[in-house]
Amino acid sequence: MIANLLTSVRLVLAIPVAWACAEPEAFPSYLLLLLLVVAILTDYFDGKVARYMKTASAGGMLFDHGTDFILVTSALFAASYTGLVIPWLPILIVFAFSQYVLDSYWLLRQKKLRMSMLGRWNGVFYFVPLVLIGFLQLEFMSNWSEALRSTIMLLSIILLISTLASIVDRAIAPLRVR
What we know:
about 180 residues, mainly alpha, single chain, Four Helix Bundle (Hemerythrin (Met), subunit A), globular
């Protein structure tokens, strides 16, 4: 129950985080970074709380990963709207997450999500460009804006490649089992 409440906080944050990425001037400069810190902390603790309270479940895992997907993808779509992120990245994340869910539940007929190491690390690193965008919006970082913009774009290219690799890895994984 408490773990799902922590996850729900991230779900509620998806809209303001995406909005702050798309229209940074509509919010105080520190707000995006603050919202992302809350999102990351709730992501870190929801699973720990569920395991500690012995309430961890396949449904809770799907809720956690689905919420991360919604928050990160909507924010990256918003960031692509501003030109900070390659537009293909959030599109590929939609495809990769759909493949993850369909592969786990329908193709392999498992009762929970089947994670891959590359997919897990992609999920973690999808937050990094968003955090850098949060720093980019801070007024005292204006001297670093070009370096931050370049770093965000480079990271989006790296994540695009690693997401493609994850999609291919998941697609050929059933062939390795046979």
